[in-house]
Amino acid sequence: MASPARHRDRHVLLAAMRITQAKSAPTGPVDQRRPLLGYAIRIASLIVRSQFIIARASARHVVRAGSGVIVFLQSRLREWSLGTPGGTVLSVSELELLGALRRGDEQAFITLVHTHGASMLQLARVYVRDRAVAEEVVQEAWLGVLRGLERFEGRSSLRTWLLRIVANLARTRAVREARSIPFSALAGAELEAEGPSVPPERFRGPQDRWAGHWATPPEPWNRPEHELLSAETRAQIVVAIDALPEKQRQVITLRDVEGCSAAEVCNVLELSETNQRVLLHRARTKVRQALDDYLTTSEHQEGL
Amino acid sequence: MSVPELTCKELVEVVTDYLEGSMPAEQRLLFEEHLAFCDWCQSYLQQMRETIRLTGTLREDDLTPEARDGLLGVFRDWRRR
User: Fold this and answer.
1) Candidates B13, B55, B72; nearest CB to A287
2) What residues of B are in the A interface, CB distance below 8 Å?
3) What is the predicted ipTM?
4) Which fold has domain B8-80?
């Protein structure tokens, strides 16, 4: 005599097995057989439910069968995520979060805002500097996220998707506010050759036996941690970043302030890998120079 | 026969390639060889790493409570429809 709970458990495990079997031999090109996000969400929720069943199962054969099903489901999920172009992976918890959000779960929304809200605002401020305007852009972006939930297929990571929505809206807004020249023109101009990273006079000239080596070498900063992390030092960095050309500022803000990966930045700002790296190099070089100017002059002042 | 070599002037131009791990193995070898003998370039690289670390401390972790409330409003309006 199976109790109703047992009966439900069996039903879940069977459903999980049916799904894995139905999708286990996909044919056709990767792009066509890639199931939609809804499928992945179903798998994810089945994984979690199977885990519950196993956790309370006493009979050994249920545990064994259940574990087998979970391994199956996980490999399906992996296959699904690898089948997505770009090979990005939505984690099981992200899939669940999206599922909850679709059902109108407020806690899921709060969690998402908590995880990604600050990065989204920072990105918006890279385009529109006014904080109030940037906050409007972020609000608009969240509305876009909620409206686009059904269409989001998980081709990119969740964070990339969110940031791209912000970038698109913020870009439009910046153009409308006439603070920015068209985007493509900007990137082009900024990618043209710039001067060398370090002024050439700091290196030995071509006639020198040590041509190309330091003539005025960098002085180590050797500053105590509290001084490096002081408000004054950090203000120098903010000023230096603000003074950067637009694209360089965007790249360094996303990479070094927000901690995004190179791939994420390429995706969000629509840059090639090489261009992303060139812009990052120029931005970091200038910020290092600004810090160097500040740290070495104030050292001299202290010595007086 | 001249040994291929990286000068300090060249090194500062490829520092980001090095840090990003996007250097071909051969160039990486030259880069690290140069570093091993050049205290100055070690300083430069160290400063670059410090710059990245310090820039990372600028991250603002939170939205203002008003902004948060505003977003919750957006969500509730959306759910109502």
Assistant:
1) B55
2) 7-10, 12-13, 15-17, 20, 22, 38, 40-41, 43-44, 46-48, 50-52, 54-64, 67-68, 70-72, 74-76, 78-79
3) 0.90
4) Arc Repressor Mutant, subunit A (1.10.10)
